[in-house]
């Protein structure tokens, strides 16, 4: 983990309130893996004081991209940054998505901004392993459906669920997941609201599917010191059965999480 002064090479609003930011730094790009995240300095002042954690969306030869939603003061300030400006980045942080080379069926299940880590994962699976990738994208409505075109251009089969039924199937990503009929070994990856992840885990457990979740959490340091992002697990970390999302995660096999305590 290092600090990088990255050049903003692209910054666009891709849906109402959602932005894609491309940060140029060759070394950062070379070190980054799908599933990891960065801690981004929104301004060069002390307001806001804390960095913002952001999943790495895509990895290019000399840059990475992040996909974020404007939800508060920090991301509102971030959305005003222009091309050519410099942003200080800490990273890459956390672990990455494991990929079983013996599996040829992959399901990526993302709700809302939780779709963000999956374009990089899909690209790596295609590049290094091959196989069949199916993606389930969830959103409140049609304008908030993210990354659909990216996945289709990669050759993935894409399903969309919107809560209001304005596009795709009306309902939740878990409704689509429950109705999928896959007989061969499959690995499921999921990210989004914790209630959604818990339901995805339950479906996968019933079908004996391996499932990895990218967990989202508020965090101050990003390196496991502040203990502000802990989650109850079934293994011991420094004498406690609590894992740090930023250090032991953000990727967890959903079978090791103590869901009854969340």
Explain what the structure shows.
The protein is α/β, with parallel strands linked by helices and 262 residues long. The protein has 3 domains: 2-93, Translation factors (Elongation Factor Tu (Ef-tu), domain 3), CATH 2.40.30.10; 97-216, Rossmann fold (3-Layer(aba) Sandwich), CATH 3.40.50; 217-262, Dihydroorotate dehydrogenase B (pyrk subunit), domain 3. The chain contains 6 helices and 15 strands. It has helices at residues 26-31, 73-78, 118-128, 148-154, 173-179, 194-207, and strands at 2-15, 18-24, 37-40, 52-59, 63-69, 86-93, 105-111, 132-139, 157-162, 169-170, 186-191, 210-214, 230-237, 240-244, 251-253. The strands form 3 sheets. It has a 7-stranded mixed β-sheet with strand order 10-9-8-7-11-12-15, with helices on both faces. It has a 6-stranded antiparallel beta barrel with strand order 1-2-5-4-3-6. Strands 13-14 form a two-stranded antiparallel ribbon. Strand 13 (230-237) and strand 14 (240-244) form a beta hairpin. The protein is globular, with a radius of gyration of 18 Å.
How much helix, percentage-wise, in residues? Answer: 10-25%
Which percent band covers the strand fraction?
35-45%
Category by helix and strand content: alpha/beta
**Model regions low in confidence, pLDDT < 50 over at least 5 residues:** none
Annotated CATH topology of the largest domain? Rossmann fold
Overall mean pLDDT score?
95
CATH architecture of the largest domain: 3-Layer(aba) Sandwich
Number of strands: 15
Strand order across the biggest sheet? 10-9-8-7-11-12-15
Taken from the alpha-carbon principal axes, the silhouette is globular
Report the end-to-end length measured between terminal Cα atoms. 30 Å
CATH superfamily of the largest domain: Nucleotide-binding domain of ferredoxin-NADP reductase (FNR) module
